[in-house]
Amino acid sequence: MCRGQIATDVIRDQFWVMYQDPAMDLFITDSKYRKQVEPLLGLPGQNDNLIETKENWDKYKDKRNSYLSLRGQHYQHAPLNWTSTKAIWNGDGNNTNAFLTVFRHFDNASVVRGMVGQVPQTIWWMDFPLFERTYYELVVNFDLFGNVAHQLQTRLYFDLIRNGAEHNFLRLLPRDKRKSVLDDWYQGMGVVKTYFTYAPLDLDIKTAEKFSTDDTKSELLNRILQQFKQVNADADDSINRCQNQSCFRNPQSTWVQTADSVLSQLTRTTFEQKSGLNYLPELTFIRVKNGMKERFIRLSEIVTTAMWLFFLESH
């Protein structure tokens, strides 16, 4: 249903999605808690009166933020391992939908199985309320032919869902590291949006994960890549996440491996190192020829900022 710049600028250009284990989700395991928070989880867009758009938006925004406050209070009493990698759904050991990668292509988006590409800037960790609201907001309740008020409220509320999934992932990091990671995600006008629209960052719930480096985000994601390798459809990305000298796929012919090695070097090249990359489109195809054979390789890596503001995106 999401097509067009305004519809897709609510998401980032590449991010990973993972899910909270249902057995460690209070909304599923605690019926009293579920009954208490359900009234706060309604979705906007049903009232499409244009004049009342701001009033409706403020009402649902405040309900959502009240829900997060209540959620935080209850999760403080949950077992400690509910904020650890043990609380990440493992796809029951065989479901490769457990980890997904979303790519935005300016005015449309695609989803593939597995943690694909380089380690992204942000990660979504979705519990059941986040997943359910995403489905009903963007599929069941969305009116493709609805008026501006309906579509605007849908777009604005999904901004809160994205933010909620990002905040949930941050709970796996040490409390003293979360703010610096969030500041890296929300810069410029994003700081203003964080202050006036989003719920405060959860700095109360302690993570059960232990860390040995200062780069806790990278350490955590490398741990997740190893721990859930069995259900990661793209577990061995030797081009984008090369950890040794053999930056190519196996088994492949020599000429393909040579091309892989060159491309692996390119993936580690930043815009600052090669200013000419700024002039490439966000989607580029490279054709590699070898006699009678050829391969087409797609490059796509443009980091867009200001997804929280209409028409004010920058690369």
Automatic annotation (TrEMBL):
The keyword Isomerase applies. One of its GO terms (molecular function) is isomerase activity. The keyword Isomerase applies. Keywords: Isomerase. It comes from the Bacteria. It holds the Pfam family CTI. This is Fatty acid cis/trans isomerase (CTI). It comes from Methylophaga sulfidovorans. The lineage of its organism: Bacteria, Pseudomonadati, Pseudomonadota, Gammaproteobacteria, Thiotrichales.
